[in-house]
Amino acid sequence: MQWLMYELSKRPEAQQKAREEAIRIGGGDNVLRAPDFDDYNNMDYIHGCVMECLRLHPPVVSMVKTCAKSTKIGKTSIPKGSCIYVNAKACHLYGEDFNTTEFTGAQFAPERFLDKDFKQKVQTSGAWFPFNMSNRKCIGYMFAQIELCIMLCRMLQFYEFKLLNDESKPAEKVEDLPGITFRPSSNLKVLVTRRTK
Questions:
Q1: Residue 180 maps to a domain
Q2: Structural domain containing residue 137
Q3: Is 189 among the domain residues?
Q4: Residue 53 assigned to a binding site
Q5: Percentage, residues of the chain above pLDDT 90
Q6: Residue 48 belongs to some domain of the structure
Q7: What CATH number does the domain containing 35 carry?
Q8: What is the DSSP letter of 167?
Q9: 176-177 and 183-184: which strand pairing?
């Protein structure tokens, strides 16, 4: 959730689009009912924000795979039984699926996940794998996405996020800190205020 607040505070226009969707889902400014599981399939932009945030800040820092059979990639031979280190963040930033004429891999662009064909392609091809992949995928990955979408939707109905860090100054730049999961450096400052309009 910290990373979502960080990314949305850096892109006020994305935050506003997500908020408009949250208000629509809540029934309008006068009602604002809490979202529930049945609303999840109508959270296209909010889900795009969550998927994009997970792409840029994957909870699974890295994974180790074992090569099942000897293979060759380009001129490099990989013997059966070799341990292959997979850096999820690097794959998400530099993979060809995420570097297009419209967006670079480093940009926070929820819009890329509004294309249902693209969304399906990157999920099934293994290009997007913040929760690992295949039979090693986190058992709670769908629960986590649904929970993030519903929480973000509710927060956006009432609050605005503003980044207080001046990231042009090296001391205020927010960094990924590796651990069991990536977390933001302790200097992250996001002002959360009650929405007035």
A1: yes
A2: 2-59+108-194
A3: yes
A4: no
A5: 62
A6: yes
A7: 1.10.630.10
A8: T
A9: antiparallel
